[in-house]
Amino acid sequence: EAGVVQSPRYKIIEKKQPVAFWCNPISGHNTLYWYRQNLGQGPELLIRYENEEAVDDSQLPKDRFSAERLKGVDSTLKIQPAELGDSAVYLCASSARQSSPLHFGNGTRLTVT
Amino acid sequence: GENVEQHPSTLSVQEGDSAVIKCTYSDSASNYFPWYKQELGKRPQLIIDIRSNVGEKKDQRIAVTLNKTAKHFSLHITETQPEDSAVYFCAARPFTGTASKLTFGTGTRLQVTL
Hints:
The structure holds two protein chains of two kinds.
Chain A: E1 5-7, E2 10-13, E3 19-24, E4 31-37, E5 44-50, E6 53-56, E7 65-68, E8 75-79, E9 88-95, E10 103-104, E11 108-112
Chain B: E1 4-7, E2 10-14, E3 19-25, E4 30-38, E5 45-51, E6 56-59, E7 62-67, E8 72-77, E9 86-94, E10 103-104, E11 108-113
Parallel strand pairs in B: 2-11
Antiparallel strand pairs in B: 1-3, 3-8, 4-5, 4-9, 6-7, 7-8, 9-10, 9-11
């Protein structure tokens, strides 16, 4: 089966600019996650979707971050405006159900200059 | 919320030796404990996981043990090979609930030397 697909793979932007990341989960996976991984750290959850509903967005900085999962399949994560501290790898993951193992995509490495 | 601590942060072993990575968790409701391997610039990949109804699970050279009373779990890699070199992350998650999320440790960089 195809894995979790993310794009772009790399993104370099200037601070205050907007940026968007896209994720296509494994087919049939109802649960989708966005994680942020800072250098030398473990992934930290930003938001979790069950189908098209965001069921946990407590760690999402809502003043600048937004996410959507239209039709319960693909998802986009947006930052506007980006700050220097947003530089990180943004990982998307999916699982068949909330209690199932997570499968990660290759991530988007964001550099904010 | 859950807090996962992982030790050591770096580990160097000679090829053929064993490697052990240890994690502790804080939430007694956690009952799912996966381990991920992440090679440089690549995605985290699930290598083994364990649920709280078992104390040990083995898959070839990899094993995980769980002590629910002490709230710690460990990854054991035997007969290490150079391709085992990577960063390993442990994680913990409560079974259900809207607040249920997978919390990761800070990672262990394993270096297997020839």
